[in-house]
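TICKET: design request
STATUS: open
ATTACHED STRUCTURE:
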């Protein structure tokens, strides 16, 4: 099964790229974790958030695999424990479809793209910096897999 983190924002600090590659590289071959980085819309910084989110949604849609199960990372989503995420990961594997985890830009996800998502996941009630979101998602997916595989990484 392919897992794709489709995220708005490019040119991350070196520590983010390093952490991302570390955790993504730990995933087993049957749960390949990829990253598709898309640029922030220039409209986002010009006071036209609606147009910016719409452009970013088009950009994200261009990298989402056909028939993908969509998971919107959204502050209004459901908070998932690691155990819940591991159950979701197990369920995703039975779908026979790729899973795309969507991270919007500075103004969030376009409402239409958010509405099209099959699930909505909130990492925290806190507002997290976009670079941290990538690292947290990759680490939590690895942790969820380790829980399913009875790997010693997860010791809770």
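STATUS: resolved
RESOLUTION: sequence designed for all positions
ATTACHED SEQUENCE:
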């Amino acid at each position: 099964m392919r897992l794709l983190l489709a995220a708005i924002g490019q040119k991350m600090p070196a520590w983010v790229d390093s952490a991302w590659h570390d955790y993504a590289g730990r995933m087993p071959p049957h749960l390949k974790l990829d990253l598709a980085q898309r640029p922030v819309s220039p409209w986002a910084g010009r006071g036209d958030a609606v147009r910016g989110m719409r452009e970013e949604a088009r950009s994200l849609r261009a990298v989402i695999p056909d028939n993908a199960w969509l998971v919107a990372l959204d502050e209004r989503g459901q908070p998932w424990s690691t155990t819940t995420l591991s159950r979701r990961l197990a369920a995703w594997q039975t779908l026979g479809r790729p899973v795309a985890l969507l991270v919007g830009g500075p103004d969030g996800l376009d409402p239409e793209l958010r509405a099209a998502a099959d699930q909505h996941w909130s990492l925290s009630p806190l507002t997290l910096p976009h670079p941290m979101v990538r690292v947290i998602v990759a680490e939590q997916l690895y942790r969820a897999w380790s829980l399913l595989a009875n790997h010693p990484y997860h010791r809770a």
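CLOSING REMARK: DSSP finds five helices and five strands in the chain. The first strand starts at residue 2 and ends at 8.
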